[in-house]
Amino acid sequence: AKMAAAASDLLTGWCLFGLALLAILIFCWVYVRKYQSRRESEVISTITAIFALAVALITSALLPVDIFLVSYMKNQNGTFKVWADANVSRQIEDTVLYGYYTLYSIILFCVFLWIPFVYFYYEEKEDDDGNTCSQVKTALKYTLGFITICAVLLLIGAFVPLDIPNKKNSTEWEKVKLLFEEFGSSHGLTALSFSISSLTVIGMLAAITYTAYGMSALPLNLIKGTTSASYERLENTEDIEEVEQHLLRIKSKCRDGRPLSSRDRRTLQQLEERLRTLRRRERHLESIEKSWWTKFCEAIRPLKIVWGVFFIIVALLFTVSLFLSNLDKALHSAGFDSGFIILGTNLTNPLNMLLPVLQRVFPLDYILITTIVMYFIFTSMAGIRNMGIWFFWIRLYKIRRGKTRPQALLFLCMILLLIVLHTSYMIYSLAPQYVMYGSQKYLVQGGVTVATYNQLGNIFRSLLYVSVLFPFNLDQCIVTRTYLFLHKFWFFSAAYYFGNWAFIAVFLIGLIVSCCKGKKSVIEGEVDDDDSDMSDDELSVYYH
């Protein structure tokens, strides 16, 4: 009966996973179609963007699943469930590990091959309307550089030894043999981990730039709302009248046949461009004012305020927990050479305090972790949407509803893939024991006492240090597969540590800036001076 119940629970879990996968695909399709340009849409770039965005969301959802599976195999008294024998638990571990292998390999494929190829193919298609074969060759030529970088990262991760042999008189052949033995024993895990960690560093920079700002901008924008379309339309009408009067004054100077001065001609040209922009704004505002979507948003305005307050609470919880966790590492870690590995929890943070309480009521702790992960992803989307795609101080692309170019969507999805890689380490920084062991408990001293691994870290720090390097009590507790991809290389962990401080600083700066800014325009970023008149049709189609 217990085996049947366990099988039924697992079947239910897989059904829920299938429904979640379907929901993710529908969301990705709606999101991409919402922002892509109607005039410049391309089938191959649309499919690539939807696929890459779905991979990013599925990868982020794998962390809560991993934590749930290792916790589900044990009872509350610290013993394994009847069905969770050594073979079954190993099969579950291998399944999750193969899931990580697959998703991380797909991310490498997307970042280093597929997305660059589609991007350069579309660029060539815009520049040259020649034959397809020439476009494919040129795109492959540029993509070859990305493939070379990927191959170099895999080779470095595969053959750079983590443990240097102590034998000083060992021959060169023995050293080469050791490299191949380490590569064979890890089954390529180290090579993949090094490549993923390298991309995670780039994802950390993207998270500092976009996610930190999005975590402050998204909640405050929901709370403050946007200006009224009718009020903006009234102001815009006044601006149109003012510009038209100015144009008439300048044109009146040449009624008697006298030519305009160069200064007046420049002013006239600027005013005409300004007038065209204001008239486009007038058409957009009129379309928005009459749309059913605007009326619906006004009806759910109280709900938006509630969501904004909830999001700012989650952001503050996340930031305070990250600050205390980093402060704990600064005061009590093993130092820079160890990647700031923390030996237990000395300074507790709100998330560490909340998770043990939520563990008592299933599945509140998993809901919290899933909420934080999803919040991290959606605030990243908000940050990219508000800031656009930048290369240092140069703005490459804008993300706008119904007017985003295919190249910008490809960049957006690539950035999200990189940010997702950094998400796992961010959650690990907040609750390391929970990410490693979930809500598992184990028996101490022959079953006399039941303790969690978080309690173990505060009691036996030296034993926990052993468990960090070589998972402790493998016969009693199972380590999540996520941890196998973390702390493989100490220099990456050190980079993540300093990146966390930069993330906190950018979040606080973004919070101050967002508080000082007023309400956003109802057509914020939708109308620019460099837009063509044909772009008006795209937004009209979107709102109607």
From TrEMBL:
Main location class: membrane
UniProt topology in membrane: Multi-pass membrane protein
Location in the cell: Lysosome membrane
GO cellular component terms attached to this protein's record: lysosomal membrane
Stretches assigned to coiled coil: 261-288
Ranges annotated as spanning the membrane: 12-32, 44-65, 98-122, 142-162, 189-213, 305-324, 366-396, 408-428, 489-513
GO BP field: protein localization to lysosome
Tree of life domain: Eukaryota
InterPro entries reported for this sequence: LMBD1_LysCbl_Transport, LMBR1-like_membr_prot
GO molecular function, one term: cobalamin binding
Keyword terms: Cobalamin, Cobalt, Coiled coil, Lysosome, Membrane, Transmembrane, Transmembrane helix, Transport
Short name of one Pfam family: LMBR1
PANTHER family: LYSOSOMAL COBALAMIN TRANSPORT ESCORT PROTEIN LMBD1, LYSOSOMAL COBALAMIN TRANSPORTER-RELATED
Family: Belongs to the LIMR family. LMBRD1 subfamily.
Protein's recorded name: Lysosomal cobalamin transport escort protein LMBD1
